[in-house]
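Exam review. A common question shows you a sequence with its C-alpha cells and asks you to describe the fold in words. Practice with the pair below. Do the first one on your own.
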Amino acid sequence: MPVKMIGVLLIVWCSLVHSTTINVKVKTLGAGFSGGATPSEVPAKFTSPDGENLPAIVMVHGSAGPDSRGSFHTQYLVANGYAVLELDMWSARGISTFNQRPRTTLDTLPDVWGAWQFLSTHPKINKDKIAIMGFSWGGVNAVTTAFGKKPKDAPQTLAQAKFAAHIAFYPVCDIWVKNGIASRVVDQSSPTGAPVQIHNGTRDDYDTTPAVCESLKAAHPQMPLEIILYEGAAHGFDSTNSNAIQFFDPVAKNGKGGQVILVGQDQARNQSKDKVLTFLKKHLPGQ
C-alpha cells in the first residue's frame, strides 16, 4: 500500500476513534503545605477512548486555570488511546484571577494525588500506567511528583504510589537546580525513577535563562530526564492564544520576580505533540 494512502488511513482512523467525556468529582488526599484550606473535592473532566486496561494522564493546568492547552493535548492523547483526567483546581477554591492562586504549588498536591487515586481505582484504567502532564504551575507539580513528594498528612494509601511518567511544560527550570527555591521544600535526592520529559522555549522568561533547563541533567543524574527546547518559543507556547500577554510574577527568576510573556506558537505546539506521543509510546505503551 502506498505510504500516502497509509497516512490517509491513519488520519481517518484517528478521527473515528470513539471517546466519552464526563464531568466528575475528584476527592483530594491530604493537605497543602501553606496552611490554606484544601477543598474536599475538585471538579475534573474525564475523557476516555473505548477499551479497557487503558493508560491514563492526569492533566494539571497553569495559573490561568483550564484553557486551550488542556483541550489541545487531550484531543491527540485520546485519539492515540490514552484516557485523560483534566483537573480544575481553581473553581473549587473560588479562584478567578491570577493573583488569587494558592501560596505554593505544594498546596495542590492533594488534588494531583487525588486524581492519581481516582484513576488507579477506575475499572477502565491500568493503575500501573498513569502519567502526569502539567503546564507551568502544573508543570511544577509534574516535576515535584517525580521526586515522590506527597501531600501533607497523606493517607497510607499513597505510601507506595507513584506516577509512571512525568511530562512538564515550562516548569520554571531554575527552581530545580542546586540551591533553587524548590530545594527548600522538596527532597530532590531520591527521584522515583520514572522518566521525565521537560518542554521549554528558548524565550521563556520565567527562568533566569532558558539554558538552565539543560543543566538539570547534570543536577539530577539519577533521573531519566529528557529536555526539549523550542527555538524562539515563549512561556505557554502550546496555547492557541496568538496575542502576547505580559504580567509580573513574583516567583519568576528563581523567586526574585520578573515580567513574563505568554504567547502561543503554532510550530512549537505541533512539535510538542509529536515529542509527547513518542515519549509516552516508549514509556507508557497502550493496550
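Now try the second one, then compare your answer with the model answer below.
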Amino acid sequence: MIIASFLDDLSGFFSNLGHVKLVPLLVGMALFVVYLSFRALAFRNILQDAYPHENVPYPKVWGAYLAAYGFNNVIPARGGDVLKVYLTKTSIPGSSYPTIGAALLVEAIFDLCAGGVAVLFAISIGVFPDPPSWVSLDSFDLSFVVSDGRRALFLVTAIVIGVLVLFALVALRVRLFWARVRQGFAVLRDRRRYMKRVWGIQGLGWLVRGSAFFFFLQAFGLPATVENVFLVLSANAVAAVFPFTPGGAGVVQALLVVLLSGQATKDAIAAYGVGQQATIAVLSLAVGFVALASIFQIRSFKEVIARGQEDRRAEKEAERAKKAGEDVAAFAASDERGPGFGGGAAETDTETTRPGRRRRSAEAEPAGPSAVDSWLDEVDATIVRPGPPPPVEPDGWLDEELAPDRAREQRREDRARWRRRQRRD
C-alpha cells in the first residue's frame, strides 16, 4: 500500500513537471547549497575548538559535509554520516573518531531546538497530527514504529543494547575514549563562543533553509507563506527522527499532505513533497560527487570504503610499531636500573643455591663480565632507540590525565621483564 502510494505521488509529480516554475526552483536550489555551507562552517568551528592547535581546513570539511548529505539522500539510516566522519578525520592531523562523533552531537543540539520550535508552531495552530493517527499515514517509517507498542519497545531496547555493546568494546580504553569524547564538546565550555561560532551560524543557515523552502513552494505552485514554510520545516524535523529511509523520504510527504491540507489538492501537495525531495536529493548528490572528486580525488563510494580499511590497517601497524619501540626502550632501561628501579640496596656477594648445588661466591666469579652480560651489551649496542615522540599540543591535557596510569603500567612491565631475565640467567 505504501509503495503504491509513493508510486502514485511520483506519477503525479511527473505529470505536473511541466508546470514547475524554473526560476524559483533554481533560486531554491542555490539557497539550499548556501544552507549546507553554513552548516559545514558551524561543524568546522566545533572541530576547531576541539583541536585548537590544528588548522581545520574549511574546504575539506565542506566537501565532507556535502558529500555525506548527498549520500544520506540515497542511503538509509543516515549511512552518509560514516563518510562524513571518515573524510573529516583524514582532513585533521591527529584527530580521532570519538572526538568527531561528539562534534556531530554538538551540531545536533541546534537542530533539536529549532525543529522542536517548528513542531510546536504546527501544534499551536492545530494542524499537526497526533502520534496515534500516524498509523493511518502513508509512511513506512511512522506506521512501522507507532503501529505496534511491542515493536517500538523492541527498537528502543535494541538501541540501548547496542550502546552497551559499544561501551563494552571500548571498556579496556574507556578513560581514553571518554577523554576524546569530552574533547569534541570543547566548544560548549565557552557559552558566548558557542553561541557566536556555532548557534548563530546554524541559525543563519536555518533562515536560508526556510527561504529555500519558500521558493520551492513557489516553484511547485503552492501558497508560499511564512506559515507554510514553518509547516514544511516541522515535517522535515520529524523526518530527521525517523531516518529508516533515505533522506526521510515518505515521512515528509505523508506529513505535508496533512499539514497543508485545505491549501491545495492532495495530489498537488504530494507532487510537491516528492518534487522537493527529488530536487534536494539530486542536487546534494551531484554537489557531493563534485566535492569528492575535486577535493578528495575520490570517484566512488567503494573507493571510500577501501581507503577507510587501508587507513585502519595503517593505524594498527603504527600502534604495533609504537608499542614495539616502547618495549625495546623499557627493556634497555630496566637492564640499567636493576630490580630496585632507583637505588635500592646492593646485591650480596654470595647466594645460597638449592640443595644439591654448590655455593657460588663473589671470589669464585671471574673478574670480567659474564657471557650473558656481554651478549646483552652487544645487543644493546645495536638497538636504535627511538627518540622522544614529538609533543602533540592539542592532546597535551589528555597525556597529563593519563600519565599516572601509563607510569604504573610501565613499572609493572619493567618488573616483569627483569624477573624473566633473572630466571633466564
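Model answer, second protein: Residues 19 and 320 are 63 Å apart (CA to CA). Residues 2-299 form one domain. Full marks require stating both points clearly.
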